[in-house]
Amino acid sequence: MPDSGRIAERLERLWALASGPGGGADRPAYSPAEAEAMLLVAGWAREHGLEPGIDAHGNLWALPAGWSGAIVTAGSHVDTVPDGGRYDGALGTVLGLELVADLEPARGDLEAGAGERARAGLLVCAAEEAPRFGAGTLGSRLMAGTIQRSALSQLRDAAGVTAAEALDAYLRELRELPRVKPPLDRWRAHAEVHVAQRRALRTLGVVTTVASPRRFAVQVIGEAGHSGEIPMAARHDALAAAAEMVLAVEAAAHRQPDETVATVGTVAVSPGALSVIPGEARLGIDVRGISSESLAEIDAEIRASVAEIADRRGVRATVEQVRGGDPATLDGDLVDAALSAAREHGIHASPTWSGAGHDAQHIAALAPALLLFVPLHGGESHTPQEGASMDEILQAATVMNAVLSACALDSRRGV
Fold first, then answer.
1. Which value, in Å, is the radius of gyration of the alpha carbons in the chain?
2. What are all long-range contacts of 304-307, with beta carbons under 8 Å and residues at least 24 apart?
């Protein structure tokens, strides 16, 4: 059975590693603080008889010593947003070790003819959070091939450091760990437990679909001029046009199902002087949804609205999609197994969806993946007030372990 005391103690040790100005966890992607957390987790993995190693993308693998057969894994991430919460990423990582503690002692010696039985390991993906480089789930996306290593040179943090440079420095911080190749050819299943990121979920959530983020960069070119001398009727104000576009994006999202959302998260204005009419404005738009049809509709509506507003206001505007993708459907067999395991253990669980991105959605292209949500309590996710109930954490661990134990025993599941 999962050990609640050990879970709580390990969560606290990760929480205490690096604090932000508001008292939350502060372990940015590909940073020394993330590397320190990985080393701490690697030490715990050794206590469970695992051999930890780092792959070329910065992900931590901890697998049974000397084992070359099939594996099932669990885990999440250990980096955080600035002033992040205690559970985001850390919870799934700590519960991955509880999986090993639960499954490995029960395994016993492999009997003759039982060589297809899988063993349990840990996977902690690197650089899951997006704030540092404006792109998240880098470790899992690199592993899945949905982003290439060359693209990291185009991603920069606020100090101008590229993600490629940060990854190289991060790997040097982890030089005491051996380099390993991801064991993709013998991977049977993976499970990630995560604290829920919306308050509406009040029971254990079994995720069926993860929303796809589509991101757009809008550039609006008007005419700069003296704010006191140019009449209102003669202006081509880029910011005024962009402001109307912001409201058009919001209105477009309201016409879609509730699971489709759109946010204008960044606005940049040039020349940015109080007495100068803005000559240029740039918007960053984040659109998410679990329906490809809905995403296509809102994409088309945003583009049409931007074009109409630009024409009417006498400015020029371009819309560039900087990230695309379709919603990820997670393994149906694992979803059914999780719901069944919950019923067998008297745990209330329900199918749900995720509007936030997770490593599991990219791992799903490599191995059957399960994503479980523990209800959020005590505050919003991604803040120091983020909370979760230990009873519900143990419920998630029980369901995860039951599902992966069945996967480990199922010799029909592909390796």
1. 23
2. 305/245, 305/248, 305/249, 305/252, 306/218, 306/245, 306/248
Q: How far is CA 198 from CA 130, 194, 290, 387, in A?
A: 18, 12, 16, 12
> What six digits make up the tokens of 273?
């002087």
Exposure on the CB side of residue 282, measured as CA atoms within 13 A: 9
pLDDT tens digits along 200-220: 889 999 999 999 889 999 999
For 354, half-sphere exposure in the C-beta direction (CA atoms, 13 angstrom radius) is: 30
In sequence order, the 6+-apart residues with CB closer than 8 A to the CB of 161 are: none
Question: What string of DSSP letters covers 200-229?
Answer: T--SEEEEEEEPEEEEEEEEEE---EETTT
Torsion angles phi and psi, residue 191, rounded to 5 = -130, 140
Cα 358 to Cα 156: distance, rounded to the nearest angstrom: 21
* Cα–Cα dist 369/328, whole Å: 11
Evaluate whether 149 touches 168 at the Cβ level (below 8 Å): no
Split the chain (415 residues) into runs of 10 and give each run's mean pLDDT: 94 92 94 98 96 98 94 97 95 96 67 64 97 94 95 95 98 98 95 91 95 93 97 97 98 96 96 97 96 96 98 98 89 97 97 94 96 91 91 97 87 50
Q: Which residue has the tokens 């590693």?
A: 17
Quickly list DSSP for 56-81. Answer: TTS-EEEEETT--S-EEEE--B----
H or E segment at 164? helix 163-173
User: What is the amino acid identity at position 347?
Assistant: I
Domains for the chain: give ranges and CATH numbers: 4-210+327-409 (3.40.630.10), 212-323 (3.30.70.360)
Which pLDDT value is given to residue 67? 92
Rounded-to-integer distance, Cα 23 and Cα 73, Å? 32
Contact 71, 120 (CB under 8 A): yes
pLDDT at residue 212, rounded to an integer: 82
Give CA torsion, residues 124, 287, 284, 223, to 10 deg.
170
pLDDT value at position 114? 45
